[in-house]
What does this fold into?
Amino acid sequence: MHMFEYLQPRTAIEAEALLLANEEARAISGGMSLLPAMKLRLAAPSHLIDLSGIEEMRGTSVDDNVLTIGAMTRHAEVARSSVVRQAIPGLAALASGIGDRQVRNRGTIGGSIANSDPAACYPASVLGLGATVMTPRRRIAADDFFVGVFETALEPGELVTHIAFPIPERSAYVKFQQPASRFALVGVLVSRSRDGTVRVAVTGASSHVFRVPSLEQALAAEFTPGAVENIAIDTEELNSDIHGDADYRAHLIPVLTARAVDLASKPDAVGKI
Amino acid sequence: MGTMTSKRESGTVPNGIGRSVKRTEDARFLLGKGRYTDDLRIPGQAYIYVVRSPHAHANITSLDASEAKSASGVVDVLIGSDYLDDGLGTLPCIWQVRNKNGSVMAEPARYPVAVDRVRYVGDAVAVVIAETLDQAKDAADLIVVEYEPLAAVVAGPDAIMPQAPIVHNDAPGNLCFDWEIGNRAATEDAFSRAHHITRLDVINSRIVPNPMEPRSVVAIYDDIADEYTLHTSTQNPHLVRSLLCKSVLRIPEHKVRVVSADVGGGFGVKCHLYPEEVLLTWAARRCGRPVRWTADRSETFLSDAHARDHVTHGELALDSDGTFLGLRVSTVANLGAYLSTWSASIPTYASAPNLAGQYTTPAIYAEVKGVFTNTVPVDAYRGAGRPEANYIVERLIDAAAREMGLDRVEIRRRNLVPSAAMPYATPLGPVYDSGDFRKCLDMAAGNADYEGLAERKQDALRRGKLLGLGVSCYIEACGVSPSRANGISGGRIGGFEMAEIRFNPDGSATVFSGTHSHGQGHETVFAQIVTDKLGVPFESVMLVQGDTARIAFGHGTVGSRSAAVGGSAIVVAGERIVAKGKRIAAHIMEVDVEDVHFEDGEFRSRGTNKVMTIAEIAHAAYLPINYPLDQMDPGLDEICFYDPTNFTFPNGTQICELEIDPQTGHVELKRFVVADDFGRILNPMIVHGQVHGGIAQGVGQALLETVVYDADSGQLLTGSFMDYAMPRSCDLPSFEVSYHEDSPCTHNPLGVKGCGEAGTIGAATAVMNAVLDAMSSVGVDHMDMPASPSRVWRALRAATSKLPRPTASASATAGNGNQVGNAHGE
Ligand SMILES: Cc1cc2nc3c(=O)[nH]c(=O)nc-3n(C[C@H](O)[C@H](O)[C@H](O)COP(=O)(O)OP(=O)(O)OC[C@H]3O[C@@H](n4cnc5c(N)ncnc54)[C@H](O)[C@@H]3O)c2cc1C
It folds into this structure.
C-alpha cells in the first residue's frame, strides 16, 4: 500500500470540500472495495476521507411510503433493521446475501452504489425499486445514476448521502452466485408498485445494472412466473467470462426473473430471500 | 457439518490408541497463538519482494536495476546474472523417470531466478531487498526489464504438437519423458478377446492447492559461525535442507538449520524446495541481513506448484458378463515450465501403479508423456497421482455399465478382489496386504440407500430436478515408502521415518519425529501412541518436530505416511525403551531379565511382587547409582529409523448423491456417504476431520475449482479468489462416514493404513459419476470437471430428451440453493 493521509470529517459538506481540495483524495466508507484495490496497488489515493464519522449519513426511516437509508448504513444493519424488513423485506434479504459476515459488517450501501461494480447487488435494488440517490447537491433518479463499469452520474467530489426507496407493493431479489466471488453472476430484482408499475433490474450481466422492458411489459400484463419464462433476451450487451458466456446469462435472466416473481408472490417467502 | 455415523471409540487405555482425544494443538490455534513463519521478527530483518515475469514466455533482452538499487530503503537488488556469478546450482527433481527406450528423462535447468528467459507468468526475475515491504515494492517499479516475447503453449496436448513453441531447448518436442508400465502384449491380447470395449477421454483439471497459510520464508546468516537458519513453511524440513545444500547452494548440511514451526496447511504443495527458499538463503548471506518473504495470495496462484492437469484416454475391455479383461490408459501430463521437486514421479509412479484399483483386471498397460508448457510447475497435491488413477478407472466402469446395461454397483462387485485373495499382487506391481473391498462397498451402498434410488429420482423429477448418484471405489498406495521401492523407480530419496523417544529424569517423555504436522494433529496422536504403549500419562508426552537441529532425520509428512511410517517408528523406538527398561529393572529388582514383563507402564517380575514404574526406571537411568553400568549406558533415549516393507493400501467406497437444476445448471450435493478401511484407527475424531477435509477438496475440484490460462497469451485468468472458486462449507452436505476396521495393515506394528488423502482421492470421481448419472437420463453422458453451473447448463443443451420442469404442486423455488442470497455465506 502507498502512503496516504487520513482525514475524518463530521459533515457531508465538509467531506465534499476535502475531496475537492485534493485531487487524488478518495472517500472511504466500508473500505471493502477500496482497501483491496489499495493493497493490490491498483488505487493510490493521496488522502482517505473517512465518512464513518458523519452522523447525518446513517440510519433508516420511513416517511410517506418512502424508505430512506443513510449511505453509511452497513449491509448487516440493513439486513437486521426492523424498519427495512417491514417496509421492503426483499431489500433486507438482499443485504443479508452480500459477501460474508465480515464484509456485511463493514460494507455500506452508499459505497456499494457509488462503486457501481457490474456484479454488485445493491445497484439492482436502487434501479429495480426506482429509488432516488441523494447527494448534498441534488437528487439523482436511479435511471440516471448507473452509467458504466464502475461509473455513476456522481461528479468529482460528490457524495451519496442517502438513498430513498419508494415502498413497492411487492418485490424480490434473486441472486445466482458467481461460483468464485459469490457476487452476482446474474441477479434480478423484480418489483411491482402500488400503481401496478413493474420494474425488472438485472445486475451481473452487463457493464452495469440495467432494466429489461420486455420482461417489465409482460409482468405488467400478468405478474406470474409463466409470463416471463419464454421471453428471449438479446445477448448483444451481455458479459462473457470464464464463469458464463453471454448466452448463459441471457438464459438466466428470465429464469431468475420468474423465480423472483414467484418469491415476490409469496409474502412469507419474501423475507427469506 | 459432519455426522459421526458408525465410528465408536475403541481401545482401553485412557487417552490411548482408539480414543477421540481432543487435540493438544488446538488451544493455541484457536486462540490465534500458533507460531507461523511470518510471525517471526528478527532484529535487523529486511523484506524481500520477488519481481515476477508478466510474460508466459520471453527472452530477457535487458534488465536495469540501477535506479531501484538507489531507491529509498533498498538494501540490494539481486538478479540472474548475480546468481550465475556466484556459481550456484539449479533446483533438482528427486525422481528420475526413464523413457520407454530406457533413456533418462530430460532435466532442463531450473534456476531460482531467471537467467536469460522467462517461461511462465510468475517466473522470478529479480529479488528486491529493502527495509520495508512497501519500499521493496516501490523499488520494484523502478526496475526496467526489456522482454522479447515468444510464443507460449499452455495445454499439455498442444505442447507435443509438431509446431509447438519450445519451452526448453534441451527438451526437444517439450517432452520430459515418455514412460510406460505394464505388459503391453498381454493387454493387447486381452483386448482382442473382449466382448465389449469402453473408450473414454477425460481431463483431470488443473487446480491450485491453496492452503490457508501462504508460503513464508525467513533466512538468517550468522557470519561468525558461518551458519544459516532457514525458517520456512514446509512439510519436509530435511528434504529442503538436503536439496538446498547439496544441489543448489553447495553448503555442507551441518551448516544449515531448517525450521518449520506451525504450518497452516500443506496438502502436498509445501513438500518441495521452492525458488524463494533458495533466493532468501542466498540473499541473507549476500547482504548480511536476515531476510523475510511471505507470498500474498496473488503470488500463491503464480508461484505455488499447481496440481493434476492430465489429459487421459482410457479403454476398458470386458467380457459379456462385465468381467474386466484388460485396461489401457494413455496420459499427457502437463508438468509446467520446470520440473518441481516431485513432479516427474506424480503422473508416473504415484499414479499408474494404482490403476488396478480394487479389481482383478488381469492385464493393464499405461503410458504417460510428461510435457513442458509455459505454466506454473505442476506437482503433488493431496492424493498426488492416485486421484487421477481413480478418476479414469471409475469413470470407465460407469461408462461400461451404461453401455452394457449393467448395474454400476453390481459390475463393481463382480470384479472386486475378494478378501480371501489377500495378499493380492496386482499386475502393475503393488501387492495389497489386506482389505475387504466388498464389505466397504456394501456398507456404503446400504447406508446410501442405493436400493431406493429410482424412487428418489422420480421424486426429484417432479420437483424439476435431475437426481444422480455416483459411486467411487478407491484404493491408494500410501505409507510412503519402502526406500528400495523408491530406488527401483528412480527415486533419489529414501522413504523411512525416524522417531526418537527421550525419557527425561522425571519420567516425562519427549518424542522427536521426522514427520511434520501441519494440521493433522500429530502432537495428539503420537502422544496417544506413547501413552498406550509405554503407560506415560498423555500430558507427560511432548512432540518435537520441524527442526533439523533437533530432529535426527526425517522425510516429513506426505503420502498419508505419518501414522503408518512415523507412528511405526515410534512404536519400535518404544519397544527399544521397554527392552532397555527391562534390563534396568532386572538389575534393580535383582531378578532375571526374562522374568521381567512390562504392562500398563509398569515393570513386574514374575513370581515376586516387585514392581517399578517406567518413571522410576527413567529416574534410575539418569541417576545410575544402582545401575548395570558394566552392561549398558546410562540414559533412556531410543531412536528408530523405520523403513516400511510395503506400502499401505487404504481403500473404501464413496457415494455421492446430488441434484441438478436443469434451468440453471446448479449442482446441489444432497448426501455424501463413505465407508473407509484405514486399518486400525488411532483417533476417530481426527480421522473424521481428515476425511471431511479430503472430501471437501475432492468436491472442490469436481464442482468448482479450475485453473484457466489464456491459450494465446499464457496469462493466468484465475489468479485470485474472485475467479478461482474454492469450496465453502455451505457447498457441502453433512458427511456420513463409517469405517471397516477388521482388515488391519499386516506389515506395520500399528495396523494403520493412513487416512490423509482418501477423501480427496475418491470424492471428485464420486461427484462426477453422480453428475453423469443425473445427466445420462436425458442423454448426456460426458463432461469434464468442473461441473460448474454454466458448464452443466451447456452440457445439458445437448440433451436428447426433454428436461424436467417442476410440476404445479412442487414449488419452483424450493431448494434453489445458489440463487437465494442468504442460503450461502452464513
Ligand atoms: C469478499 C467480498 C465479497 C463481496 N461480495 C459482495 C456481494 O456478494 N455483493 C455485493 O453487492 N457486493 C459484494 N462485495 C462488495 C461490498 O459490498 C462492498 O462493501 C461495496 O461494494 C463497497 O462498499 P464500501 O462501503 O465497502 O465502499 P468503499 O470500499 O469504502 O468504497 C468504494 C468506492 O465508493 C466510494 N464511496 C464510498 N462511499 C461513498 C459515498 N457515500 N459517496 C460517494 N462515493 C463513495 C469510494 O471512494 C470508493 O471509490 C464484496 C466485497 C468483498 C470484499
